[in-house]
Amino acid sequence: xxxxxxxxxxxxxxxxxxxxxxxxxxxxxxxxxxxxxxxxxxxxxxxxxxxxxxxxxxxxxxxxxxxxxxxxxxxxxxxxxxxxxxxxxxxxxxxxxxxxxxxxxxxxxxxxxxxxxxxxxxxxxxxxxxxxxxxxxxxxxxxxxxxxxxx
Length: 151
What we know:
This protein has 151 residues and is mainly β. The chain has one helix at 2-18; strands spanning 22-28, 35-36, 43-44, 49-60, 67-69, 81-89, 101-106, 120-122, 135-141.
């Protein structure tokens, strides 16, 4: 359908210019077994492979229903919540796999620098659509282990 294709191409152009303003990286964790580092005595995992690095945007789910939590087996309370967000990348970007890792490597001028540092995990594969202007991947922010402190 030429008319609809033209509209979608225009929408994709607008989204790429106005929304996908940060630089995101998608990494695929290695499936290799950890190797003992003789110098440190620590197990080290093979490095992740970078699948994509380029324009993108992260959008947090603003609905209260977007925050879910379930207690782990044998736990009386929730240890970690699921705060669903979305990664948006151009249609030309590869589709992320479930469990791929996502981080923001640069934000646009005036952007939220709090996006740099945290890591998100793809909770499902990136979505492909017949009528799409941007690729959307559901992601969840990985929680850091809680650290004990001294008073």
